[in-house]
Each structure stands twice: as structure tokens, then as C-alpha cells.
Inverse folding.
């Protein structure tokens, strides 16, 4: 299943807002936003390192260090599995 997701919130210290903006039989679009008191370059650098903010409990491998994010249109938010193989969690749009 292909899912589209735009994540604008990271390391939130304040309440944010999320909304499902599109639903189809093959996926959905979720938009989440929040104000973060940090420079944009620091936020972006943290955002593209999902192992810093994604819970290992929500991975197939049990280890968030196996996650990667190719931060370009069409890029993959992927997980490498022990013993070979991988999972595409999201496609960057």
C-alpha cells in the first residue's frame, strides 16, 4: 500500500494539529503541523534522521536505527530488515 505523508512537526514541545486531508482505497494523506522554537536548518537536519524521533516499538525490525529517509520527491521512508530485505513505510511527496 502506498501512503503519502507530509510531516511538519518534530520534537514538539507545544500542542500541534493534524488532519487527514485525503483518503483513498490505497492510502491516505496526513498533514501535521506545529510551531517549533528552533532554526529551520536544525529542524530539517533532525527530521531527515527518523531514528532520532521514531519509536523502535513501531518498526518491523524492532530498531529505529534501521530507518532511513530519502528527503526528495519520490524518496523512500524505508526500513532495512535484519538478514536482508526492506520495507517502504512511506513515499516522500
Amino acid at each position: 500500500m502506498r501512503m503519502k505523508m507530509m510531516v511538519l512537526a518534530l520534537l514538539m514541545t507545544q500542542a500541534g494539529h493534524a488532519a487527514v486531508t485525503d483518503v483513498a482505497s490505497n492510502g491516505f494523506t496526513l498533514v501535521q503541523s506545529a510551531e517549533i522554537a528552533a532554526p529551520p536548518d536544525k529542524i530539517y537536519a533532525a527530521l531527515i534522521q527518523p531514528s532520532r524521533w521514531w519509536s523502535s516499538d513501531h518498526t518491523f525490525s524492532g530498531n529505529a536505527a534501521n530507518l532511513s529517509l530519502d528527503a526528495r520527491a519520490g524518496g523512500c521512508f524505508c526500513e532495512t530488515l535484519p538478514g536482508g530485505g526492506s520495507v517502504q513505510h512511506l513515499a516522500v511527496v
The two ends are 15 Å apart (CA to CA).
